Amino acid sequence: MKQVNLFTDSPRRLFFHYLGPSIGSSLVTSIYVLVDTIMIGQGVGDTGLSAINIFMPIIASFFAIGLLLGVGGGVLMSVAKGSGNQQLAHKYFSTVMMVAAAVSICLSAFCIIFFDPIMYTLGANETNIELVRSYGICYTLIAPAFIFSASLQCFLRNDKAPKLAMIGVLVGSAINIGLDYLFIFPLDMGMFGGALATVIGTIITIGILVLHFFSKKNTMHFSFRCFSFKTLWEIIKCGFSSFLIECANAVLVFVFNITLLKYIGSIGLSVYSMIANISIVCMSLFNGVAQTAQPIIATNHGAGHHKRVLQVRHIGTITSSIIALVLFIFGFFFPNILTYAFMNHPSDEILALASSALRIYFFSYLFMNFNIFFSGYFQSTLRPVAAIVVCLLRGLVLSSILVATFPLMFGTDAIWYAVPVAELLTFLVAMAFLYFHKIKKSKAFTTT
Q: How far is the C-alpha of 62 from the C-alpha of 60, rounded, in Å?
């Protein structure tokens, strides 16, 4: 089979060569959590949904660290390869692997030791702490697996092995789904069964990803001598926007949980648990498009092929826009289908609240797709400040402020408008970054 060439092949051909595997990898990873939520919602009930939502920020933090290292190291590895510096590419890979091992072990130990205090801070109480423990302890013990899975997927995509990355998460996800059903229903293992199924699926995914290192196509080599703090700082700067996407999602879930408990109660928390899990899947689709473009853009940017970079950017924005429109149409016109997917017998009160909340929240996807794609684009073209600003605005600053203040200013129902408004405002900022960068390049061209 002919190998793809990131420098000479058609940008459209390259993009769609990477699109399926990238979206598959990104989407299936999010489905790990989604399947747990649906199965637990059907098998345990709305109290189980609330317990998962309380632990959700911890899950997001595991993936955030994995993406911080994987995307940052992967982008820089591609840029180094594009400029012909293979030794520097090895240095980025080795540094990520060593740091991922050290950080994941420390994080797992910390979360186990202080598990209950952390959960109470995130919104747990005496009525649901046992359910949170049943789900969260198993997850926390295997934190390194989630961090390595997210990191390795990024590196494989940047080493021209997107299909193996997709196969790894597909197989792991299929096993997760099967074990979820077995553990939660026939074996009646409840919350612990859902977490255990995800852990097993993730470990199998890593086993498949590792096969790449025994392939002749592998160009990544590990060495303890390659570590340096300077290299680590470069990786952190480059991957920080991806880290912020996941961390901001964790903070937003926390702010939503606290605000909903204050104004609506546990019913609001159950409804938001559905929205948060649906949002993870939708964001995964947009992340998949951004990750599709990332190795192509980064490699060609490193080689100075700016026309090809713009062509891939154009294809990516159109693709993500089509996905966003389809999602919006489905969520706006068929919200009850989504509610029944998560709950076996939802009450009339939950149905009414979920229908209104879902319709409003789905407007955010019409702008979120652009914000996530351009955040990745700024990363790949080595503009980390722009990428970080976009991520901070959409996921942390604007969303958190609006969630906390909209109910005070406009009433309880206004809480659901916070995220769509935050995404719209962030979109305008992202467009401003593109416009002023274009003006800056034009001035530099005329002066030369």
A: 5
